Amino acid sequence: xxxxxxxxxxxxxxxxxxxxAGLSATDVCIDQQTVYWCEVVPSEQGRGQIFSRSLASGxxxxxxxxxxxxxxxxxxxxxxxxxxxxxxxxxxxxxNDKDKRLYSIDSNNGAIxxxxxxxxxxxxxxxxxxxxxxxxxxxxxxxxxxxxxxxxVVNRLVSVRIADGSVHVLxxxxxxxxxxRLSDRAIAYLSWDHSNxxxxxxxxxxxxxxxxxxxxxxxxxxxxAYESFVQPxxxxxxxxxxxxxxxxFWNLYRIANEGNNLDLLLPAPLEQEFAGAQWQxxxxxxxxxxxxxxxxxxGNKDKLAILDTEAKTLTNIEPLSDYISFEFIHSYFxxxxxxxxxxxxxxxTHSPCELIAYSVEKKxxxxxxxxxxxxxxxxxxxxxxxxxxxxxxxxxxxAYYYPPQNPDYAGPEGAKPPLRVLSHGGPTTQTSxxxxxxxxxxxxxxxxxxxxxxxxxxxxxxxxxxxxxxxxGVVDVDDCCHAAIYLVKQGLADGKKxxxxxxxxxxxxxxxAVAFRDVFNAGCCLYGISDITLLAKETHKFxxxxxxELIGExxxxxxxxxxxxxxxxxxxxxxxxxxxxxxxxxxxPPSQSEVMVDALKERGVPVAYVKYEGEAHxxxxxxxxxxxxxxxxxxxxxxxxFPVEGVEGVTIYNFPK
Length: 657
Description:
The structure is a single chain. The protein is α+β, with helices and mostly antiparallel strands. It folds into three domains: 28-282, YVTN repeat-like/Quinoprotein amine dehydrogenase (Methylamine Dehydrogenase, Chain H, 7 Propeller); 284-375; 380-640, Rossmann fold. The strands form nine sheets. Strands 30-31-34-33-35-36-37-38 form an eight-stranded mixed beta sheet, with helices on both faces. Strands 2-3-4-5 form a four-stranded antiparallel beta sheet, with no helix packed on it. The protein has a four-stranded antiparallel beta sheet with strand order 6-7-8-9, with no helix packed on it.
């Protein structure tokens, strides 16, 4: 029997506690028939743990944690990190978040030893790769000062001797470096300078590295148009592969040993992306086969495919067709099986992300790291539907729409569900329709969700990505508003119960939408930017010139910054807003939220503020992840007038009890 209950108040099988489980594996590495990955453990204060699991056929192994309490594997280079550890021939080298030093782990006895000295956390390391002979690592080093501005931070490419921790500079002079890759005595890496971001323009560098790893010779740059190179990768035969968007979309190319020309791996460029925005180090969107230099595995829209570089064909892997989203794609040759094995994070529309291994010839799938989140019956799962909708300037924008879904409940006759518009961060990232338990939390309670890939998002080519150039706070805001308006017109949402939620850059969109548009009835801002003049003045080096491309030069274009900043138009905000903030956030400091909260308090607008000690940019602790989602639902219940039971609320200033 279906029970009638107000939308938003349906009892749900998805608990807030379960949202802190099932976090994805990152920095996946494969070494000697063993897969390694890093995983945030919310129940251990959000520390990064390295896990390993044997890939041997028939091995009845379980994931094995390598780090005792007191260690946390995480890199904070560029603040977003990535490439926090590497493994080669049984040697593990990782960046410890507490002191930012590099450490080694002896795979025989698990002993942990420091490699680099104590710099009082002023030196950071990321994008780590171990040399073939295990004598040194190549990585990106970031040098800080105790009192600094973004211009004071120095990034360079270095090698670190494992025996004595000595650091040797391999390349310097550019603002940024990433993706060092080694093959015998060859090295490839990327570099770029302000005000470019890595999805705007990067340079691909190749060189010879000395046997001891202390210097480079014969350095040269691959000839380039104005393009973004992503993920250089050496094949088994020494050829260098790379993704480039010179066609307008990130396609895959090869640079042969004998020259610098880029050879497209398919007959013609496709209008689809084979890579993405490098917000973090060590992303892997494709992988050359270890056993066959003519093959590589890559994403093909929402499929995984094998690209034959001789035949120039792209063939989907049909046994993996249930999965629609793939990350950290790797492959290796399994000597025991005598065949190539593909390892990747994979997600379906109905089940959480899991780390899988796929045997190419046997066509067998193994789950190496099943999700730790409890399974959800398919009857309760809302599957994302890609929608296209009209937006400003006669353009089309994209989103994924999730209807309310709970077989046990329905809303009152004639009622429409509240709509929660999601504005992703970045802003140059994207969302997919892969299963997301956090979305199911809301849809099973009677909310409709629309997850917007506004203009500026990756996944739709450079032209779509560049819609945000000089238009941040306009194009993205319009697209989120038009997504909501479109769904209301389709009869799929209640036009008087529209909310928008976002974090970081998505938080800026949230605040801009409620300040500059009259569409939404409530907002939820997580560590969002309210004053983009402060972003230009205070943020970290990696993004310190990003606003130049998104808005204009500061202080030359200060008036534009103020016009787009929600803080300076707080008097236009009339709908209630709840803010969540990490006290140790260096990307978007607490002041960004607090000035906005104070302004709304003074204006008499209903506002709530929650600050978490010990949290930075993005919440990692289980209790805070749970608290945030529960309070957001409770807040909407207060504003939209439906009951939310079992949640201890917070003060909503200027709101009658």
